[in-house]
């Protein structure tokens, strides 16, 4: 494990520790430098500091560069739908049912396995199980996802997500009829008090969260919403919709799967009862290209199952009106 050290100069005084490290070792990104600091591989005058520590003249900075963590995922020839690709990023259209990265119960057949097959030289960024991954979608949520192909792109995209500069819009089919044409849900989200696999608006340790919504189409008993996420919390849309009494149709975790019983008997209930996953789709994504600085705005078409449900709802709605 290489060990490097330097002494901070007058010109470097007042700059963040992670920024100064990158100046001395430009082959790594600032996010990588921050990780090294948090992992205890960096000391200042023999002490562990935070990435935001402001250096002083004469500070002796010593850091270790651990060997790259080997990729433990194997490439697999899993088809992926690519909306855009260049040397720095890949924008994908994730189908429902595909897990983004390996975890408990999902050691293979994930998006990461597919990416390693498609990009054998994908740089080891984001950890051994998440090369290039800067955000994710739940297994049964479909839609658009951007992946970094190199360290520079990963650093830029991670920063944009952290600073809420990425625009994320979803389409969600929810139970019930909304009382207003649009609204804002501002409820903090954290881990569920008793079920660690779930998120909740009643967590003891929560973070501020905001979801803006507006009606895109209204039917009898269910509504298609366009959701604009101002933050990016785990299960945000699903938790927020359930919290206001309009869970996402088909969402077994947050109450959606049981709500079909509340609908009137007949074709509508039969249609909703047949749904096997949450009707949630990551529809649009806008971000600044890491290299060119160009604003990239891409859209993912509705997957077949959700498009079919909406088409059937339109048919039933039309029949009811006549």
Notes on the structure:
The protein is of the alpha+beta class and 322 residues long. It has 3 domains: 3-64, Structural Genomics Hypothetical 15.5 Kd Protein In mrcA-pckA Intergenic Region, Chain A (Roll), CATH 3.10.290; 68-163, Pseudouridine synthase (2-Layer Sandwich), CATH 3.30.2350.10; 164-322, Pseudouridine synthase (2-Layer Sandwich), CATH 3.30.2350. The protein contains 7 helices and 15 strands. The protein has helices at residues 17-24, 30-38, 111-118, 151-162, 236-243, 267-273, 304-321, and strands at 3-7, 42-44, 60-64, 81-85, 89-94, 142-148, 167-175, 182-185, 189-191, 199-200, 206-207, 211-218, 222-229, 280-288, 295-299. Strands 4, 5, 6, 7, 8, 12, 13, 14 and 15 form a 9-stranded mixed beta sheet that branches. Strand 14 and strand 15 (295-299) form a beta hairpin. Helix 1 packs across helix 2 and helix 6 (267-273) packs antiparallel against helix 7 (304-321).
